[in-house]
Each structure stands twice: as C-alpha cells, then as structure tokens.
Design a protein that fits this description.
The chain is α/β, with parallel strands linked by helices. The chain has 20 helices and eight strands. A hairpin with a 5-residue loop joins β3 and β4. The chain is globular.
Length: about 525
C-alpha cells in the first residue's frame, strides 16, 4: 500500500507539469529557457555548464566586472545548484536538462516523503490537492530557477524528521544535520532548519547534544562565510542589509533597538500594503505574502489547539490510576506532530522578521515560497474532520495563484518560437567561430569573459534591455559579467573583459564603433564586439 501511494505522489509533479503546459496548448518539451524573462536562469545555467565541462567556469561571472577571490562564481553560493551539476555529469547538460532534472528530483522527493512518513489516503489526497493548486510549485519545476531545489530539500528534511520522531535512529539524526547544513550553504536563512535536529539531539543526549549542535552550526556558518567571501563575486548592491546590526554599534543598545522597531514598523506597513495589492490586483509579491500569512495562521492555530490537547491528555494520564496505553500512544503521536508544527511556525515568524530587516520585499518574496511548500506538507498531515484548514488554504491558493495570476513574468512559461530558435542558432554559430576559450594563461581570466550590458540608451534617450537570452549560446566555459550602462560609460576604454554584448543601435554600440573595436556579430537586437 505504501509503495502504491509513493508511486502515485511521485507521478503528481509530472501530471502537474503536463496539465500546466496542456492548458497553454503546449507540451513539456516545448519549454525553452532562452525565451524566459528571468536572467538569474542564464547565470545558473552557464555556471553549471562551466562546472560540468571544466570543473569551474573559465571566465569570470560577476557584476560590473567584479569577480570572486577564487574561481569564477557569481554572487550566489555554487552549492545551490549541486543537484544540476550531478545530473549534468551523469546525463549531460543542455537547455532542457534543468527542467528534466527538476521534475525527476521532485518526483523522487515526493516518493521518499510517502515512503518515510506513510500518510493515510486522506492525507495523501489533501497533499495532492494543495500541491496542484499551488501553481508556483509547478512553475518553478518548469524553469531554470534554483528555488525548486530548495523546495525539494525542505520536503525531504521534514519527511526524515517525521520518520526520526517515529523511530529514533542516530543515523537519521545525522542525516538531518547534513541536510540542514547543505540547505544553509544554499541559502543562509535556511539555517532555521538546523534548529530542529539541534533540539532533537538535546532531547536525546542532553547538554552534550547542545554542545554538539552549537559546533555543527558554527562550522556550517564558517563554511558559508568562506564560500561567500572567497567564492562569490560582489553584487550591484548588498544581497541582504545589515544596517540594523550596525545601528547597535553606532547608536548603542537602546538606539539599535529603537532603529529596529522603527524599521520593522515601516517595513511591516509596506508588507501589508503589498498584501492588499496582491488581493486586489494580483501583484505577485503581495500574493506570495498572502499565501505565506494564510499558511502561518493555519500552522499557529493548529499548534495552539494541539498543545492544549497535549496538556489535557497529560493531565488525564496523571489522574488515571491505571496507565492507559492507548492514551500514552496518542500523546506521543501528538507530541511528534507538535514538534514539527511548532518548529515550522517558529521558522515562519523568524523568516518574516528576517525579510523585513534584511531583504528587499519584492525580491525577497520568492524566498517565502520554500516555507509555503514546507507548510503544505505539514498541513496535509494534520488531523482534520471538516476540512476547514484545507478549504482555507486551497481557496487562497486558487484565488491568488490561478485566478489572480495576472503578471506574465511570474506565471507564463517560456516556449519555443521558431523565430527565436533560428536567431539563437545563428548566434551560436557566430560565437563558436569567433570566441576562443583561452586556457593557457591562467584561468579563470577576463579573456574568457563577456560583458552583458543590462540596459543601454537608445537614440531617443530611453533605456532598453539588451537581448541577454542569446548569451545562452556562448561557448561552454565562458563567463558573463552583467554591467550597468553607467559603469560602461565611466570605464569605457578601461574595461577588462575581452568581449562586450550590448543593444544593437544603442549608445554603447556607437561608442564601440567609434573606438574602432572589432564587431563580431550583429542583428536587430544584439551586437557583440571584441575589445582587445
């Protein structure tokens, strides 16, 4: 029976992707990354390609020609894409590889969740319903964004945690620490998930568990700091803000507290204004906030109810003259569920404050999706009689992520278009002929780097985006430095990268032409020059 359930849930990601594409009149194989509007995907894809072919990219990935102190990775931790690297080493790497890997990995995680947790048929049905309504889950599977890897990691983490609480084995606790550490190296806020195995180790070994947990957390933070300092390039702006920490040093304890309270006040006000916009007009970050709050309310409410029930069962056991084994079993089962629910509820609260204090709301909104995914799996395992919690969450998902899914960038899938495919093929031929990967003068280097001008000025003075999607066609191993037009204007003539790709007919195009740089290729959207 468990095997049947596991196979059925493993088929759900495939079915969701098939239905999602069918609603657009397409098939899954028609999804094509070079037609996407998310430029993060380009960096993820090309870095993985460089790792698979050469161990690490041979050119610099960065921003305004920044680069890591060691090797050649962009601002995000390379640990984030390790499943794609493993997949590419085994099966090869092409434009469809991330999507196939996403679907296979998610199906495998769903299978393992059922195998480890053994839910009832009702719980399985609730889980399938909520996952189907949670359309960002499907969208990220059909993208080159690394968020789906975070989704899968937290699903596997909670499956293993539930299994450990049912049958406590030390090897499972070790695996929880390993998973939590890897997740932290992927995204630093996922450090919250190391707190659960730390608590479980404390329950198992007392203060020895505390000392061991602190050691594991300290080592994990140290490794992340090393990766961030040595293996990551500097972004345009800080990836997260630390002004609230600086305030304690500059203004003292009370001044720092006052600063934090003031910032939390204004940021929370903006948070709830975004929620209102998400409910009224479907603005996507606000819609993500609404889903986050809905899941949190269910988790917090159920945790309070289960805690009261847990206390009542405890008092009943104390008052009973004869030990009621059934009552003890119920209390143990309820305790196991409470540990998971309270940990996730605490993580929701902590991430909420981290978002307000450390992230830009719009860009940080997608980080909440990982917690929403975890919430779906935990809610599906709750005791329910009248399905009130399921209806609340399901209606919220259907409204915000289907009915109000109005912003194309967040909800439309990139499909093949013959014109774009032909344009891409033409540029690949141009790049293969004219761009030579230099490996004899110390790599990574700027000889193997291409500047991608993010935007350029047109003849009428307006700004237009460069057709960066064509850079997927760059030869394997080349690095990409995303640069602002202001940076190019200020440093023109002193640029370190060997090549520059910019808007055809734009101001920088004219500057390169006037400077006598060699033109390598051009069409109506993109032009690329060799600078030296």
């Amino acid at each position: 029976m468990t095997l049947t359930q596991a196979v059925l849930l493993a088929l759900l990601p495939v079915l969701c992707c098939f239905v999602r594409c069918a609603l657009d009149g397409e098939v899954i194989s028609s999804v094509w990354l070079p037609n996407s509007g998310w430029n993060d995907e380009l960096f993820y894809y090309k870095q993985v390609e460089g790792i698979i072919h050469y161990g690490y990219p041979q050119g610099y990935f960065g921003f305004n020609e920044s680069h890591a102190l060691n090797l050649s990775f962009a601002a995000w931790s390379p640990v984030l894409v390790f499943p794609w690297v493993i997949w590419g080493l085994i099966f090869g790497w092409n434009l469809w590889s991330p999507i196939v890997c996403n679907i296979v990995l998610t199906s495998l995680v769903c299978f393992l969740f059922v195998w480890l947790v053994k839910p009832t048929w009702k719980q399985l049905g609730i889980l399938a319903l909520l996952l189907s309504l949670y359309t960002p889950f499907t969208w990220y599977m059909l993208s080159g964004m690394a968020e789906i890897i975070c989704f899968d990691m937290v699903i596997l983490f909670y499956a293993l945690a539930i299994n450990y609480l049912d049958r406590k084995r030390i090897r499972k606790l070790v695996m929880l620490f390993i998973l939590g550490a890897v997740m932290t190296l992927m995204r630093p806020y996922l450090l919250l998930f190391l707190l659960l195995p730390s608590y479980l180790w404390f329950r198992r070994a007392g203060w020895k568990g505390v000392v061991g947990s602190v050691t594991v957390i300290a080592v994990t933070i140290g490794v992340y700091a090393y990766i961030k300092h040595y293996l990551s390039s500097e972004y345009f702006a800080p990836l997260f803000f630390t002004d609230w920490v600086d305030a304690f040093f500059e203004r003292g304890i009370f001044g720092g507290i006052r600063f934090c309270i003031t910032k939390l006040h204004y940021m929370s006000k903006s948070f709830f204004e975004n929620m209102a916009e998400g409910a009224r007009a479907g603005v996507t970050p606000g819609a993500y906030f609404c889903g986050y709050v809905a899941i949190f309310c269910v988790l917090a409410g159920q945790s309070i109810l289960d805690w009261r029930r847990f206390r009542m069962l405890g008092r009943a056991s104390e008052d009973s003259v004869v030990r009621d084994e059934e009552n003890v079993a119920k209390r143990r089962k309820l305790y196991n569920r409470l540990v998971i629910q309270i940990h996730l509820t605490f993580s929701f609260v902590a991430m909420f404050f981290a978002l307000l204090l450390m992230y830009k709301l719009e860009e940080g909104s997608r980080h909440l999706l990982t917690f929403i995914t975890a919430g779906i799996f935990v809610i599906a395992l709750m005791d329910t009689r009248y399905f009130k919690k399921v209806v609340l969450v399901g209606v919220a998902f259907a409204y915000f992520y289907s009915y109000m899914a109005v912003e194309p960038l967040y909800y439309e899938l990139p499909y093949r278009q013959e014109e774009r495919v032909e344009q891409f093929a033409g540029w690949k031929e141009v790049f293969d002929i004219n761009l030579e990967l230099k490996r004899d003068s110390g790599v990574p280097n700027y000889d193997n780097s291409v500047i991608w001008v993010f935007q350029d000025e047109t003849s009428d003075g307006s700004l237009e985006f460069t057709r960066w999607q064509l850079l997927y066609a760059l030869p394997e191993g080349f690095g990409i430095s995303c640069c602002t037009h202001e940076y190019i204007f200020e440093n023109f003539g002193r640029l370190e990268s060997k090549y520059i790709a910019t808007l055809s007919g734009g101001r920088i195009d004219r500057m390169c032409m006037d400077a006598g740089y060699r033109e390598i290729g051009r069409d109506k959207e993109l032009v690329i020059y060799r600078l030296r």
